[in-house]
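Budget justification aside, the reviewers requested a transparent look at the raw inputs and outputs of the sequence design task funded under Objective 1. We therefore reproduce one unedited record. The lines immediately below are the structure tokens for a 275-residue chain.
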């Protein structure tokens, strides 16, 4: 059964499905061989994530930021680096989080994998159909669904944020949740643009969720650029910490744990009813 989220943007574009590059969702023409590969790779990817994921041990810092937002009735807009897709699929599985997914070959088999782990998908990317995807995500956020972006995807540049999550946060009033997952042992595909990483079985992993970022509705273009720069800075910091976590001393790790607790206490002490 497909877990593709209903596309609220479809009716508005029904009269002309090729409004522009940012709305167009024409699928690429694939050879018969490529079309045959999609279900096979999709099942292999599903089995690999399940087989390795069940053996992993996670330490998670800052997850309370997410829980507090959900408890207040506010879904989140998650953003993370493309490199961390594998452990993210396992950790966030079965929450019906909505993910923007590309229509290219990689996107088509990846979609099958993530939907089998309880995610929903809308179609679009920064290069094609992105506006359509953002419209669909805004509607689904209003229904209480969390959404997520690989913020440097689908093709890079690596570790460079794109503006979609900030634009969506300004439009909807819901917060950005920025995180990264680092693993103790994994295989990095050095020739891929994103340095994609697959954890080894029984690897430990650490995820750090930063304090949520609010994006006011009245921000102008300069303000949006500042928020995107803030998103970039936060994601770089949690990436650097988690990627180096298992090379740190226990004292260094304890210091970071304490910092995360202080951040949470500070956020809770300053919390006000949502607008």
């Amino acid at each position: 059964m497909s877990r593709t989220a209903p596309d609220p943007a479809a009716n508005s574009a029904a009269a002309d499905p090729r409004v522009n590059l940012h709305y167009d969702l024409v699928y690429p023409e694939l050879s018969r061989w490529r079309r045959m590969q999609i279900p096979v790779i999709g099942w292999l990817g599903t089995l690999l994530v399940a087989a390795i994921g069940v053996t992993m041990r996670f330490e998670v810092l800052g997850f309370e930021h997410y829980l507090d937002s959900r408890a207040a009735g506010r879904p989140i807009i998650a953003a993370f680096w493309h490199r961390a897709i594998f452990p993210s699929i396992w950790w966030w599985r079965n929450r019906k989080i909505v993910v923007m997914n590309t229509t290219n070959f990689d996107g088509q088999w990846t979609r099958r994998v993530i939907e089998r782990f309880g995610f929903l998908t809308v179609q679009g990317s920064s290069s094609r159909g992105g506006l359509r995807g953002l419209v669909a995500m805004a509607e689904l956020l209003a229904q209480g669904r969390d959404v997520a972006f690989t913020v440097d995807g689908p093709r890079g540049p690596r570790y460079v944020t794109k503006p979609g999550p900030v634009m969506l946060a300004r439009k909807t009033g819901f917060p950005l949740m920025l995180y990264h997952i680092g693993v103790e042992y994994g295989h990095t595909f050095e020739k891929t643009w994103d340095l994609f990483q697959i954890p080894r079985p029984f690897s430990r992993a650490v995820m750090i969720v930063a304090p949520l970022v609010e994006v006011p509705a009245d921000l102008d273009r300069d303000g949006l650029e500042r928020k995107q720069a803030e998103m970039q800075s936060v994601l770089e910091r949690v990436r650097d910490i988690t990627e180096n976590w298992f090379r740190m001393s226990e004292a260094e790790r304890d210091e970071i744990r304490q910092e995360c607790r202080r951040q949470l206490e500070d956020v809770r002490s300053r919390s006000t009813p949502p607008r």
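Confidence is low (pLDDT under 50) at residues 7-24. Residues 213 and 230 are 9 Å apart (CA to CA). Computational costs for records of this kind are itemized in the attached budget.
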